[in-house]
Amino acid sequence: MDPQTGELATYWRGILGTLAQRGLLHDRPRQGGTVVPEADGYLFLDRAVYVLDMQRLAGIPREKWLDVALWAQMRAALQGRRVFVSDGGGLAVCVARQPGTHVKRLPNVIHLTPEEIPPKAYHVKLGYTKRGPVILDLAGAHRAILTGGWSGAGKTNFMQSVIIQLCKKHGPAEFQVAIVDTKEVDFGETFARLPNLFAPIAHTVEDGARLIAKVEGERERRQALMASAGVADWRRLDEPFPLLLLVIDEAVDFSKHAGMDVTIKIARKGRAFGVSLLLGTQLPSASAISPQIKANMTCAVAFQCRTYQESMAIIGSSGAQDLDRPGLALAFLDGRWQRIQTLRVGDDGGDLADTVSVPVTPALEPVEVELVRYALSDLGGCFTIGRLAEQFAGQISKRALTKLGQRWELRGWLTAPTNAVDPRRVTDELAALGLPPGQGTVSGDTVIGVTGGDRALKSVIGTGDRASEVVTGPVTGAMRAGVGFPVPTFS
Ligand SMILES: Nc1ncnc2c1ncn2[C@@H]1O[C@H](COP(=O)(O)OP(=O)(O)O)[C@@H](O)[C@H]1O
Ligand SMILES: [Mg+2]
What we know:
Elements: H1 3-21, E1 39-43, E2 47-52, H2 62-65, H3 68-77, E3 83-88, E4 90-96, E5 110-111, E6 123-129, E7 132-137, E8 144-148, H4 155-169, E9 175-180, H5 189-192, H6 205-229, E10 243-248, H7 258-269, E11 275-281, H8 291-296, E12 299-302, H9 308-315, E13 328-333, E14 336-344, H10 350-354, E15 358-359, H11 366-378, E16 382-383, H12 385-391, H13 398-411, E17 424-425, H14 428-434, E18 470-471, H15 477-481
Parallel strand pairs: 5-14, 8-11, 8-12, 9-10, 10-11
Antiparallel strand pairs: 1-2, 2-4, 3-4, 6-7, 6-14, 12-13, 13-14, 15-18, 16-17
Helix pairs in contact: 1-3, 6-7, 11-14, 12-13
The structure holds adenosine-5'-diphosphate (ADP) and magnesium ion.
Adenosine-5'-diphosphate binds next to helix 4 and strand 14.
């Protein structure tokens, strides 16, 4: 028997064996043995095709041949070669000759839709390899990401995908983002409206440096609070801080700037305090991205590069110069090199960022609103526990007030007392929550992002059984603070 006939015979034996195992073959009444179907076998470049003789199907009905469970069992019998039965008038059994030759190539575009967002906290989907999805943990293993590649390769799209996925899953009480976009065009209106902004988007190098310093200030504030609470990891806190992600679209802007030293510090020290980093660069030369930065990043994602030296500079390996289309990336993840088709976000964040939902849960209890107002009107902005306890006797105990003071301080709503006798002070942010919408006074220093503060958010995505708790409306200070923000679930 020549090798090709041998191959055809081998597959056919597997097919008949599967039919027998499923009890589809009938015994021959007189001669013994079983009645088997007959077919003409043809070998093509990629597949073997068995055209069944419809007169000699051995009594196996058509619907049995078309049963996908049967195909799956045949596939297992044929060492993973795909099997399907086509029904174009007559029946034909098709077998892929190479296990896996029928696997589809990665599509050029895979859109970011709500269904793509992984449910686990702070996890985002980078995209797909041929084997399946690739997930990043922004609060853990992938908390400091470097991404590079030449203009138009997909860096900004990737950053936007990360931001949008986190914003859709987490309210501002769980996730906040600081964006440095010196190109001024990439993070437009849609991003300026996000309720999760830590501060307004920085569009110049000077503003960017200030924002980076502000993020580092927040990290130091957290460090001090955690030191006094005796907690070493932010996620162990009774009320954890929101994850704070610093995104710098073009890190090279800061390569000769003090902002880079601060960024390195954030990369080095942010982990314990819930401060993560996402850095992009179009010019990934060794001089642009210092070894110090690279040493402190936990993960690198390369998009298409012009030379292998650029690929080396980003991921420490050649290969990214061979990526042949935007959105395709190379990264060392889960212990191996992976080629990933990253998820595509619509222009300027597309519809997704527009639909980041906003909670209606009031930020403060009525009595808390009264406390803030009294502190502002009668105590000169001081949150003096003793005085408040007196004034609100019967409504809230001194003990509860003490706890509230600690909690609000942790949140950044009250200043830390400068010494043992000084009371904490109400911040502008808390003041804004205690006043009716429209009367809030917000200054750039303490409020969480005021850009586009009076613009209405657009419609809301389906959020499962919490949908009724979600409305559209103007963004108020209370919403920005996002207390009790429901975590949307995508069904
Ligand atoms: N994941 C993707 N899938 C498909 N196309 C993409 C993807 N990312 C980017 N692109 C295409 O490449 C263009 C440039 O992407 P962008 O993220 O702005 O690149 P960069 O920031 O690297 O200059 C986009 O407008 C889009 O057409
Ligand atoms: Mg870009």
